[in-house]
Design goal:
Layout (H helix, E strand, L loop, with lengths): L5 E3 L2 E9 L9 E9 L4 E3 L12 E3 L8 E10 L2 E7 L4 H18 L16 H10 L1 E9 H6 L10 H5 L7 H6 L1 E7 L8 H16 L4 E6 L4 E3 L22 H17 L6
Antiparallel strand pairs: 1-2, 2-3, 3-6, 4-5, 6-7, 8-9, 8-10, 10-11
């Protein structure tokens, strides 16, 4: 596991579990990736304190360890990826880590290729049809600087790429993954706007839906709101904690990922 450790800006990220056994009946690769901050301690509160004021105490992690503050679980089967993030661990943070890990591997062995992975969510086509039927009033989106540098999509939001590639201060991929970019475009005139303007905004809305790792909100001409989670195939499940920690039960999450993938297969939603 130590070979998967990447330290950037004081954050430690590493793969803490992987299962690629060829004997697994369901196939695929299961990963558990965790992040922690090297300098982070935890403040405690005292039980049954008799003091008028209580400052609490600071507890540091054991030597050569960090407190886990983010994690994600991944099931990979061919070109398909089922992702579960916890404590705001996002897909673009995972992509940034895997890219940094490939660079680290190449520094140890120059035959190892460098990867810039990206993830594209499978769309819920009912919402895409709503955009066509009702038109679009406004689009607001939140992306990361990392996302805007890895591709050159044709949407208005994708055109921000050049701004960040030219910024020498954003050379570190972790800095790019942490920097959020918020943009909004709005149609003036509502249904009275020109047909060309309405067509352009509908096309931009569909492109934004296809953007990787973008958080967005689309408001239709009829006032319906479509958010990023609405147009992605997903499943809501409840996972128990790992003992009494702030982490999730690894076995429970990984089992749910495989179960969900099998459900998608049965519905023929994994066919490209």
């Amino acid at each position: 596991m130590s070979k998967t450790e990447i330290i950037r800006a004081g954050e430690v990220t590493q793969i803490t579990y992987r299962d690629l056994s060829s004997t697994k009946t369901d196939g695929g690769l299961l990963l558990h990736i965790e992040k922690g901050n090297q300098a982070e301690s935890i403040k405690t509160i005292r039980h049954r304190s008799i003091n008028v004021t209580e400052e609490g105490e600071e507890v540091s992690p054991p030597q050569d360890q960090s407190f886990m503050n983010k994690e994600c679980f991944v099931f990979i089967y061919g070109q398909h990826v089922i992702f579960c993030g916890h404590n705001n661990m996002s897909q673009h943070a995972l992509a940034a880590y895997l890219h940094a890990l490939s660079e680290h591997c190449q520094s140890l062995d120059d035959t190892c290729p460098i990867y810039k992975p990206s993830f594209k969510s499978v769309a819920n086509y009912d919402k895409i049809q709503m955009i066509q039927d009702e038109g679009v009033k406004s689009i607001s989106a939140e992306l990361t600087a990392y996302h805007t540098t890895i591709k050159s999509p044709p949407s208005i939001f994708g055109r921000l790429k050049g701004l960040f590639r030219q910024d020498e201060e954003l050379s570190d991929i972790q800095d790019q993954a942490d920097l959020q970019v918020n943009v909004e475009i709005r149609l003036d005139g509502n249904t009275r706007a020109s047909q060309e303007a309405q067509k352009e905004l509908r096309e931009q809305a569909q492109m934004v839906i296809g953007e990787e790792n973008a958080d967005f909100k689309i408001i239709t001409q009829k006032g319906n709101t479509i958010e990023s989670d609405d147009v992605k195939l997903s499943k809501l499940v409840y996972i128990s904690k790992h003992n009494n920690t702030n982490g999730l039960s690894r076995a429970a999450v990984l089992s749910e990922l495989v179960t969900y993938f099998n459900e998608l297969q049965q519905k023929n939603l994994t066919q490209l």
